[in-house]
Design goal:
- The chain has 168 residues and is α+β, with helices and mostly antiparallel strands.
- The protein contains 3 helices and 7 strands; from the N terminus they run βαββββββαα.
- Strands 2-3-4-5-6 form a 5-stranded mixed sheet. The chain has a two-stranded antiparallel ribbon with strand order 1-7.
- A hairpin with a 3-residue loop joins β3 and β4.
- The longest helix is centred in the last third of the chain and has 12 residues.
- The N and C termini lie far apart (61 Å).
Length: 168
């Protein structure tokens, strides 16, 4: 996907850019290409971005460590404000307090909007934090026949092992 030059979009007779997506995004490991569409509309002092996209990813279950396929669906919209001070960096401040009303995305009205980067971020936000192959996943099966006494205990864990034995 090519970057959109914001001043060119603003001067267009119809300030709307429709992008059909059917490609693999760099940095996002998917089994299928990301398919969908992105609509970027210039509305004076902000960009209205809407996207519908999907892809299939291979995830690893947090309980049993088995891999499974998961469909990532994005159906979102976002407003990105156009601000001339957006790309100005405060060089000498290691930390900066940010007011609540400043927690918005901004771009320079003379810069570029990168739809592939934006879509990558939206897809990453849709990857589940809790990755389970099934809600009733039992986890890794543990062999009940072997006992901990058969295995040598690391001396660093000895005090924890004695505490565990007190509660049995």
């Amino acid at each position: 996907m090519d970057a959109i030059y914001i001043p060119q979009l603003a001067k267009a007779s119809k300030p709307i850019e429709e992008i059909e997506v059917k490609e693999f995004l760099s940095g996002l490991n998917t089994l299928t290409p990301v398919r969908g569409n992105i609509r970027v509309e210039h509305c004076g002092n902000y960009l209205q971005i809407m996207a519908k996209a999907e892809a299939i990813m291979t995830l690893t279950c947090n309980r049993c460590l088995q891999q499974y396929n998961h469909r990532i669906l994005v159906n979102t919209s976002e407003i990105i404000w156009l601000d001339e001070q957006a790309n100005v960096e405060e060089e000498f401040l290691a930390e900066r307090e940010v007011a609540l009303d400043e927690l918005v995305e901004t771009l320079s009205p003379y810069g570029y909007f990168h739809p592939s980067v934006w879509l990558y971020e939206q897809m990453c936000l849709e990857i589940p934090q809790r990755q389970l192959c099934d809600e009733k996943c039992p986890g890794i099966e543990q062999n009940q026949d072997s006992t901990t006494e058969d295995k040598p205990i690391d001396s660093r864990w000895a005090s924890l092992e004695s505490l565990r034995k007190q509660f049995q």
